[in-house]
Specification:
90 residues, alpha+beta, Alpha-Beta Plaits, four-stranded antiparallel β-sheet, 4 strands, 24% helix, globular
Length: 90
C-alpha cells in the first residue's frame, strides 16, 4: 500500500481549549494508525477561536473516516475534517 499525505482541520469546542494538549493527543491517535505528524499549525477562525491544521503521513489503507472519528473523540475537539489528501510519491 502507498502512503497518503493528509491535511486535517480540527475545530475546538471553544477558544479556551488547550491546543497544545489537543496536538499531543492527536499524535497519539496517529500512532494508532501508524501515522507520522509532519506539522501542526494554528489558523485563526474568529472571535478568539483557533483551528488546528494537521499535516501527516499515514498508510492509505486506513482511509480518513476512521482517523476523523478518533480525532473527534479527543477532549475539546468539536469536529475533524479532512481538507486535502494526496498520494506520496517515492
Amino acid at each position: 500500500m502507498a502512503k497518503a499525505i493528509i491535511t486535517m482541520k480540527l475545530m475546538p469546542e471553544s477558544p479556551e481549549v488547550d491546543l497544545i494538549k489537543v496536538e499531543e493527543n492527536s499524535k497519539k491517535v496517529l500512532e494508532q494508525f501508524e501515522g507520522k505528524m509532519q506539522s501542526a499549525e494554528r489558523q485563526p477562525i474568529g472571535f478568539g477561536l483557533v483551528a488546528l491544521i494537521l499535516k501527516f503521513v499515514v498508510d492509505e489503507k486506513h482511509g480518513t473516516d476512521a482517523i476523523e472519528s478518533e480525532m473527534c473523540k479527543i477532549e475539546g475537539v468539536e469536529s475533524a475534517q479532512t481538507t486535502m489528501t494526496s498520494r506520496a510519491m517515492g
